Amino acid sequence: MFLRPHRPDRSLERLAALDCVRAKIMIADPDLNIIYMNQAVTTMMAEAEEELRRELPRFSMATLLGSNIDVFHKNPDHQRRMLAVLDKPHSATIRIGQRAFDLLVSPIGQGGRRAGFVVEWEDAHHRLLNLDYAAQIAAIGRAQAVIEFTMDGTIVTANENFLKTMDYRLEEIRGKQHSMFVEPAYARSADYKAFWEALRSGKPMSAQYKRLSKSGRPVWIEGSYNPILDHNGQVTKVVKFATDITAQMDLLEKLRENIEEVDREVGRSNTGALTAKQAAATATANVASVAENAEQLAGSIRVISGSMVASQTATDAVFQQAARVATETEGLASATQAMSGIVALIRSIASQINLLSLNATIEAARAGEAGKGFSVVASEVKNLAVQAAQATEQITKEIDSLQTRSASVAQAVISIREQATTVRDQVNHAAGAVEEQASVTQGMSSSAQGAAAAVGAVLDSVGEMEAAVGSVSTAVRKTTDAAQVLAR
């Protein structure tokens, strides 16, 4: 229908037909004023109005009909210059915010003059999205092996990457079954049948698969089988994207073997660490026992050293007493010598008394009766002289005996002093040795205690090593499990 009084000279039927088509059509006069929009373009613009207004403040569906197409351009001068000389249809894609539109602008001529323009609009979203998908598919095709199958597993086509991986030419595989790439036993298995049934039901299948090349060489692929659905959700074909991982699988197999070897070595290391730990524990106990015994020995030697010091003091006292006894004995010997002189003097006096008594007796005899009393006195004096002489002899004997004993005592004292000197020297030497031994034993005790601490530290280190080996063993087991998963 006409929306303005001035419109192209077309019949109502043709304009009504334009409202029925899906094509989104807009007509502008020679001055680029919009004079007609069919229902399809009106609906599209209404849906996009809010987004278009964020980029084009002058845009409004209420006033769009009758406005100039300049409302679609922030800088319309370039567009006007291009349309002024347009003599054939011109296509372009414009972006307004997040929206993209494909435009086909066709000039309208009437009687040799420019009557206006027909602009066909199309939302470019799906076209650009399909282009993006196509580019992604092309990129996948360049990077991966791609092959297509019908729903019964018949090969439709394959790209160069797939053909190169499997050593085939396209004509050698087109029209044949997928089972040509698997081992015969697997092709006959229930698992293979279930695999294709899952694909036909629309379920994608992804895993690492073992396949056979033209020569029968095993080929490992990281493959994804993708059912392709039509607009009704029905599976129409299956496309497989795959990457050749044969080299990686060979490396993983070698890695698995190496890890198993490492695991065995770690097991032996773990056993060695346990043995070392037990030996270190035993050594710790032994060294601790040595340290304790050395400490006890050091204590005993300290006691002995104290006793030796006391013995040394006592020996010095004995030596000093022996020296004093020797001095006293020498004095006794001198006194005895002096007594000998006195005894000689007494003996001389007794001899003289005896001589005098003899003379007195003789004189008394001469005197006769008058000398009897004197004779008695002389006789008594003589008796006393005899007794004095006898006593003197007895004293002499005693003094001789005393001198002999004094000499023996002096000799014994000299021997005692010499022995005391020897004992004192030995005690001093022993005391010095004991003191040195006490110092050495104390050092040995300290060393043993230090050794016990060191062995304890070694035991701790062995424990840490055992824990570390255990962690490595656990890590190796986990790596082995991972390698086995990857190598399947």
> What would you call the structural class?
alpha+beta
Largest sheet: 5 strands, antiparallel
Give the neighbour order of strands across the main sheet.
Answer: 2-1-5-4-3
Bin the helical content: 55-70%
Rg over CA atoms: 70 Å
Shape: rod-shaped
Give the terminus-to-terminus CA distance.
70 Å
Q: From N to C, what is the helix and strand string?
A: HEEHHHEEEHEEHHHHEEEHH
Poorly predicted residue ranges: none
Tally of DSSP helical segments? 11
Kindly estimate the percentage of residues that lie in beta strands according to DSSP: 15-25%
Give average pLDDT, whole number: 79
| DSSP strand tally | 10
Description of the molecule:
With 488 residues, this protein is an alpha+beta fold. The chain contains 11 helices and 10 strands. The protein has a 5-stranded antiparallel sheet with strand order 2-1-5-4-3. Strands 7-6-10-9-8 form a 5-stranded antiparallel sheet, sandwiched between helices. The model has no long low-confidence stretch (mean pLDDT 79).
